[in-house]
Amino acid sequence: MIRLIIIFLIIAIIAAIFGFGGIAEGAADIAQIIFWIFVVLLVISLLSRLFRK
């Protein structure tokens, strides 16, 4: 998932440099959504490990 975040971040930066505001905004939004999904999955994983032990 980190790879997807980095890919969409690079797409957003390149699109912003060339002036494609809509594409840059969309890629940045997708990267942000994937990042928050990753954070939620990390917290769930940590909590499950905490309760197993």
TrEMBL record:
Q: What domain of life is recorded for the organism?
A: Bacteria
| Membrane-spanning residues | 5-24, 30-51
Recorded hits in InterPro entries, A to Z, give:
DUF1328
Q: Where do the coiled-coil regions begin and end?
A: none
Q: Does the keyword Secreted apply?
A: no
One family from Pfam that matches here is DUF1328
Name the keywords, alphabetized: Cell membrane, Membrane, Transmembrane, Transmembrane helix
Protein name from the UniProt record: DUF1328 family protein
